[in-house]
Amino acid sequence: MAGPRILVIEDNREIRLSAHFVLEDFGFQVETLDNPALAKPWLQQHSADLILLDMNYERDTTSGEEGLEFLRWLKQQGLDVPLVAMTAWTNTELVVKAMQLGAGDFIEKPWNNQRLHQVLQQQLHLQQLARGNRALQQRLEQEQPELVWRSDAMNRLMEQLTAVAASEASVLLTGENGTGKSHLARWVHSKSARATQPFIAVNMGAIPESLFESEMFGHKKGAFTDARENRIGRFELAQGGSLFLDEIACIPVAQQSKLLRVLESGEFEMLGSSQTLRADVRLLSATNGDFTQLIKDGQFRQDLYYRLNTLEFRVPALRERPEDIAVLANYFIRKHGQRYRKPELTLSGCAQKLLTAYCWPGNIRELSHMMERAVLLARTSELTSVEFNLPANVSNAIAAESQSLPMITLDDAEQQLIRQALMQANNNKQQAADLLGITKSSLYRRLEKYGFISPGDN
């Protein structure tokens, strides 16, 4: 395996050769150039893991200005490459300037080989740690779910979840499939004191009964026939963070007592081990099942249900929050448009009306899939009702409603629609513009045109 690539920028041929031999002996790949002017185009075509930069060149052998100018260029280009500066003169001011411009360390010529190796390895290690931290931060940012809503029903739910997110209480989310329960569980975790710790999600309906204990609590090598190596369970993976049990009602009755024991005692053992482990997790769970009926039918333990539902919240179906349909549709169009490189797509007013009239049995999941399909098949920048494969009765109902409109002038029709949108949106201009399928600035131009507001009002 090839070692890290070091780019040496040095105008003295003998020093370049010496650096090349020394660094190769240490296992590095080495590239050498004799001045920063050559290094600029080289870096735009190639990559380096570290730059070893001489600060002084023939143009000015003492000030280090050429080296400083190259450091400024690196910074402007945003190139994320660690750099070690070197010079034959001890110059504290130059060292400080180089460090301020991004040099990670400084070494004097002639160098001590072991010292040079130590400095380069340290800078490479620090760069590796920095990249790891950035990757972790990106993952944490990506894990922050973006929730979109406008309806009163969702406002009430989010107010309740906000109030309890910081607590350690177990939360049970109920509601139909596709309503976004898993996103809400992740959101609760992101707002808790455990936000920087793991969020482990488990689909309980996908775990075979025979593997329940192994999946949840882990096992030691040799614990059963196919246990060829140690396995960490979900409780241990979520240690210090949150454990989200999706489709919780799918746990077989025979396994429910094992989960209850962990929730009551906070302790568990890996299969094949006698060592008792502590479970430091916050439990979040979700289901579309009817617990009242499940308990009555003997399919779910009542005592386990009470352990899960310290705080229970029902997530409303999409048909119960029609104000959110157009907002969510536009969100998914932007999201899928970026993914498929179609960022300029918009949703027509007619399409918004059609989508709002549909009952959405698959809820938000169905809406997302439909918007993705429409984005993929879009031939123009505006998505109309043609792009959506909705049942004929919905389209026919909208068409019939359109045909029943009285014959009036376009200006009168526009004014009537604006009044209706403002009434439905409680005079909220942005919401009214969304309902009409136009921008807020377009709405204001029409309000001024028809004398609803004076020029300059907002």
Describe what you observe in this structure.
The chain has 458 residues and is of the alpha/beta class. It is 48% helix and 14% strand. The chain is built from 19 helices and 16 strands. The chain has helices at 13-25, 36-45, 65-77, 92-100, 113-143, 152-165, 181-190, 212-217, 234-237, 253-265, 291-296, 302-308, 323-339, 349-357, 363-377, 392-403, 410-424, 429-436, 440-449, and strands at residues 5-9, 29-33, 50-54, 83-87, 105-108, 171-174, 199-203, 218-219, 231-232, 242-246, 267-269, 276-278, 282-287, 311-314, 346-347, 382-383. The strands form 5 sheets. A 5-stranded parallel sheet has the order 2-1-3-4-5, with helices on both faces. A 5-stranded parallel sheet has the order 7-10-13-6-14. Strand 1 (5-9), helix 1 and strand 2 (29-33) form a beta-alpha-beta unit. Helix 13 (323-339) packs across helix 14 (349-357), helix 13 (323-339) packs across helix 15 and helix 17 packs across helix 18. The longest helix is centred in the first third of the chain and has 31 residues, at 113-143. The termini are far apart. The mean pLDDT is 87.
